[in-house]
Amino acid sequence: MTSKLDSVLETLVDANSLPSKDSLAEFSDLDQGEIKYLQSKWDQIPIDLRRSLIEEIGKLGDDNVTFNFEEINRLALNDGDEEVRRGSISNLWESENPSLVQLLLEILIQDPSVHVRATAASALGAFVLLGETQGLPSDHLTKIEDALLDTHRNTKDSPIHRKCLESLGYSSRTEVDDLIQAAFESADEMQVRSAILAMGRSANKKWGVSVLSQLQSPSPGLRHESVVAVGELEIKEALEDIIELVDDVDQNVHRAVLWSLSQLGGTRAADILADLYNAAEDGEELELLEDALDNLAFINGTRDILLFDFDDEEDPSN
Q1: What are the C-alpha distances in Å from 5 to residues 22, 29, 91, 187?
Q2: Of the candidates 21, 106, 36, 100, which has an alpha carbon nearest to the alpha carbon of residue 67?
Q3: What is the pLDDT of residues 111-122, one digit of tens each?
Q4: What is the C-alpha to C-alpha distance for residues 7 and 1, in angstroms, rounded to an integer?
Q5: Which of 8-17, 30-39, 186-195, 238-247 has the lowest mean pLDDT?
Q6: Residue 33 backbone phi and psi in degrees, to 5
Q7: Which of 34, 43, 52, 37 is nearest to 78 (CA)?
Q8: What is the DSSP letter of 68?
Q9: pTM of this prediction?
Q10: Burial (0-12, 13-18, 19+ Cβ within 10 Å), 32
């Protein structure tokens, strides 16, 4: 047990306050002894601090890929507070550890909270994708798909139902197409949104007509999911339709348009994104456009487009 980790836990348990961000790094790469010690202290940490702790290490892990908070998040999966459990599941989104599958399946089936179960259903989508790309044993994939299909069938009128469908979007199981179509034809907008998200994940362009039909929807949520799906399915003939939504009043739609343009690639998309970048003044907008241009350069197989935004200056020594 390191004195630093002990000191951090003292701050949480005794001082009843959240440690500094630098101190939170002590929760990275815990060994077995440290995990057991943390487990013995966990319930002594007040609920509000456990919630804040999970939230902050999630942010820290996203900002710095050298940190590995998998063990503390696994520990938090058994917390008595549903917000802590949901946060820990979300924090594990990058993990490809097959041993996590069984834990998520147990949560999907047994957790008393609808919202925690829905979060687990969503997290299992990453493992469906991993299985489809042969990064997970086929028996694991079948077990996940069976659980998602069974849960989807038995949780109608619940967010769990929708999240199961969204995760099954990655699956090539034949029965999934009918589930997507049924959700798309539903009168429930949230079901339709989940169907479009699943269409985008399917990598099957047969859904193109359905996706395009919602690009001009009066619902920002439906426009957003449709724009994302256009990018994921790489429906290049929709490029001009996507460009028309660049100035959409909904910021989520606008951000999705930038990403979708970068996915579609080509000179036209590059010109639009470069013009937007040159005109942008807001820092967040500039960052979004830089990411989009980086992705577009990758899609187009070119050097970073930003390198060409500046004219070469003549060397005064020549």
Answers
A1: 12, 12, 20, 53
A2: 21
A3: 999 999 999 999
A4: 11
A5: 8-17
A6: -65, -40
A7: 43
A8: -
A9: 0.90
A10: exposed
